[in-house]
Hints:
Strand order of the largest sheet: 1-2
Helix content: 40-55%
Number of strands: 2
Oligomer: single chain
Strand content: 5-15%
Amino acid sequence: MKKTMTRARRRAFRRAYRRAIGAFAAVAIIALFVLIVTCRNGKAVGKTDRIKRLTSVSVQEGDCIWSIASEYYSDEFGSMQEYIKEIKKTNNLSGDRIYYGYSLLIPYYE
C-alpha cells in the first residue's frame, strides 16, 4: 500500500522548506555584506602590505625620544605622540627620560 501525504502536510512541508531556504539566503547575504565591509575598511583606513619590524638603537649624547622617533616615524603609527607612546611601551619606559648608552627597541614599518 502506498502512503501519500495529505494536502495539509504537503503545504506545511513546503512552508518549512521555504523558510529554511529564506533563512539560508539571509545568512548568506549578511555574511557577504560583512565580508565586503571588512575588506573595504581595511583599505580605507590606510592599511598596507608593509611589515612592522623592530630595530635596536643606541642612545647617543643629546638624543631624546622625540629625535629618535622622528627618524623612524611613518603614517602607519597615526601621530607622533602615538608613536612615542608605542616606543615607551615597547621599552617599558614610564617617563620621557633616556640616557646615553641606552639601547632602545624602535618599531618601524618596512
